[in-house]
Amino acid sequence: MLYRQVCGRSDLSREESVRADLRYVENWSFAMDLSILRRTVGAVLRREGAY
Asked: Where would I find the Bacterial sugar transferase domain in this sequence (predicted)?
């Protein structure tokens, strides 16, 4: 799934960003939040996605 927090939010158009946010809200789960946190830590350690 595409979540702008870990998928290069600066690379998304406004429409894609809104769509990702809506998808997150409509499909929220604790497991998904854990997955996002895991991916975020990985991106930070790899120094990816920040401009």
From this structure: 5-45
Model pTM score: 0.61
Instruction: Establish if 39 belongs to a structural domain.
Output: yes
Three-class secondary structure of residue 19 per DSSP: helix
Query: Is residue 30 in some structural domain?
Result: yes
Q: What share of the chain is helix, strand, coil (3-state, %, to 5)?
A: 65, 0, 35
The pLDDT tens digits along the chain (51 residues) read 445 555 555 677 889 888 888 988 999 999 989 988 998 888 888 877 655
Return the residue matching tokens 């158009």. Answer: 13
